[in-house]
């Protein structure tokens, strides 16, 4: 797939709480052939190209203002 890359201005800053923030004007797209892993301490989210998503953590919260729906071929609880 041929893609045209357009350089946009992203802002990177560190605030008073020592947080590093990167802001892009519209959309940030990360693409990888094998997998993408986002991790922080004991928390981790991994995306695989076959559609599998693995979320690991000591405490996982799913919070919705509206409907919070689970759907799948089979849903296992404990």
The structural class is mainly beta
N/C terminus separation:
42 Å
Helix content: under 10%
How do the strands line up in the largest sheet? 3-4-5
Describe the largest sheet: 3 strands, antiparallel
Walk me through this protein's architecture.
The protein is built from no helices and five strands. A hairpin with a 5-residue loop joins strand 1 (11-14) and strand 2. It is 0% helix and 28% strand. It has a three-stranded antiparallel sheet, with no helix packed on it. The chain is extended, with a radius of gyration of 17 Å. The chain has a domain at 11-56. The protein is an all-beta fold and 78 residues long. The N and C termini lie far apart (42 Å).
Keywords:
78 residues; 28% strand; mainly beta; two-stranded antiparallel ribbon; 0% helix; DUF2345 domain-containing protein; 3-stranded antiparallel β-sheet; extended
Brief description of this entry?
The protein is mainly β and 78 residues long. The chain has strands at residues 11-14, 20-23, 36-40, 43-47, 53-56.
